[in-house]
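Fold description:
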Amino acid sequence: MKKIIFLLLTLGVLFLAFSFIFMTADKRVTDNKTEQAVKAKPDKPREIATPTLFVHGYAGTKNSLGGMIKRLELQNDATKSLVITVKSDGTLDISGSYDKFSHNPLIQILFENNKSSMVNQTEWLEKVTKTLKSDYHINKINALGHSMGGVSLVNYVEQTGSDNRFPTLEKLVLIGAPLNGLEIGNAAYELSATGPKTESERYANFIKQKAHIPKSLEVFNIAGDKSDGTKSDGSVPVSSALSGKFIFSDILNYEEKLFTGSDAAHSQLHENPEVDAVVGDFLWVSNG
């Protein structure tokens, strides 16, 4: 009888020992899988309260950047807030609501006179940002401009500089901005190691005023090449868009990216999901 009891106890101890070893090994496998899953998970957008202004190009409408805004809302957990329409007389028509606790808020800027000059658009942007600071207590902004909207934003940052009457511009995205004119196929406007071989009046003025650009600014400059031999997006030469590297040579961070193919056409750049992705990364994921 004692032998039977001893045998049963021995078997019980062995069973418990094997169970412990199996459970430990299984936990290690599970922990390893969890760790791998965490490593494989893509970076999530940072949730920040700094709003991003979207400025359309020449003859643009609410639809010009409207699609991009909607997609960024879905993909990057951003929040569309205000729509600010600048009337032809310079008055502002503001719709929507702004919550200072919202994450990655998006503000769409529309010009009623959508074919006006860079000078006028710059003045209107100054009025918009002053209003955002005084009425909404917004002290920091990001901005994105397509085509002429990008040109006007470059002029805006040079005109306002570090003036504390305006919110601090932290990040600027340019998409297909003709910073050195629209001379497609003209070799005289190609880039050299020190800048464009030929400077437009607009570009020359940007270079003269570049010292006013805050050193803390970060810029992401996007250009398009349809790959049809024109070295352009169909409207803006690659060399003109990428001449921005010389305007922003002294800032905290300057990045540029060239997209190619049919989806890199001028009016397709802001409809391109790959452009959405890099814009979202620059604004909300990267630390600059």
